Amino acid sequence: MSDHLLSMDEMKQVDDYLDRGFKIHNVYENLSGMFVEFERQEEEVCLQIQTAEARKYFAAKLQEQTQF
Fold first, then answer.
1. Total structural domains in the chain?
2. Is the pLDDT of residue 68 over 80?
3. Which pLDDT tens digit goes with each residue over 48-66?
4. What is the three-state SS of the chain?
5. CA distances (Å), origin 66, targets 24, 31, 60
6. How distant is the alpha carbon of residue 34 from its chain centre?
7. What is the mean pLDDT of residues 40-49?
8. 28 lies in which domain range?
9. How far apart are CA 44 and CA 25, in angstroms?
10. What is the separation, in whole angstroms, between the first and last Cα of the chain?
11. Phi-psi region of 33 (alpha: psi -120 to 50; beta: other; left: phi over 0)
């Protein structure tokens, strides 16, 4: 898959979790990419973000969440 398509897919996954009411709970990075933990009530999911474009997009979404 091309980097552009992978970025688009990762950004869509971030939006899907946020649209379904999940909140960003924890973020950590290693050589494999960025790992984002989302939580909603008792449910928790982890998403791996590998592309730079999707990481930038996620950072903007995180900033939006912390402003409210």
1. 1
2. no
3. 999 999 999 999 999 988 8
4. CCHHHHHHHHHHHHHHHHHCCCEEEEEEEECCEEEEEEEECCEEEEEEECCHHHHHHHHHHHHHHHHC
5. 10, 26, 10
6. 8
7. 95
8. 3-67
9. 9
10. 36
11. left
Bridge partner list, 26: 37
Using CA atoms, how far apart are residues 55 and 36, in angstroms rounded to an integer?
10
Amino acid letter, residue 35: F
Which amino acid belongs to residue 20?
A: R
Residue 5 has what pLDDT? 95
* The length of the chain, given as a count of residues: 68
Mean pLDDT of 16-39: 94
Tokens 């474009």 label which residue?
Answer: 53
Interior/surface letters 12-38, b for 16+ CB within 10 angstroms, e for the rest: ebbeebeeeebebeeeeeeeeebebeb
